[in-house]
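ok here's the first one, seq then struct tokens
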Amino acid sequence: MGAPDGAALGRLSRRLPLLTGRGACAHPDGAVRLAASALEVFADEVRGHLAGRCGGAR
């Protein structure tokens, strides 16, 4: 496990839209939707991890 990296989150958010419509099948589009949805639904947890708090380790 690495240290929290806000820069990586920013890179991921910027790159997700670049993948949409790129594949010969719908797999990349589905992966983008899954990742974007997870970042939205779990935004509080992501911010917590970036702040050095891990609620899942209870």
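and now the second one, same deal
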Amino acid sequence: MPENHTHTHEDVPTRALRLGVAGPVGVGKSTILATLCRELADELSMAVVTNDIYTDEDARYLRSAGVLPVERIHAVETGACPHTAIRDDVTPNLLAVEDLEERFAPLDLVVVESGGDNLTATFSPALVDAQIFVLDVAGGGDVARKGGPGIERADLLVVNKTDLAPYVGVDAEQMVADASAARDGRPVLALSQRDPESVTRLGDWAREVLRSFRAGQHVAQDPGPMAPHTHADGTTHAHA
């Protein structure tokens, strides 16, 4: 299990950088969290908050992976659609983040993983300072072209599992190009756990956001509210 770096520098901010990771079910969000922990935990003091509707399965996966001490991984059971806990009422997540920051001060980075949701789910800037939106090639090469607030305006868009592209009939390079076109110059990262260079780029992106945050240069952006949508029970609503 990685040791956690303890800061003594006077310029450490009063709270950690809060980084959100969102995206549909099965795109690899928990794996990306584990990857970030493996890349950064030797140099940064970190903690994680996971969100699931009725279980703590994502938290248990991360604890079993040994990427952080188990007490630094907190599970939130939302009891409702995951986007409600990261955008509409962020209180349970905010309390979890603040508790971790108090218990393990000083923390450098707290990563909040949303439960799997649809393409329009985004974090409230009241909860996180920056956010990653995740797609994967198995979801279809046309997904990036469909757009949505997370795809278009999250701080980073990850096109994940690119090593699987030949097996699912997807042109990964074209998918990344489509994503880049949709994002108007915002960064896109093609990621594979089998490609160490792409994993390093993910860690470097997080380091740069943290550097900007500590320097007071990072401004949290709001990708925008969810569009009106219909749930399985037939109710239709929007989130302002």
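notes on #2: The radius of gyration is 17 Å. The chain has a mean pLDDT of 90.
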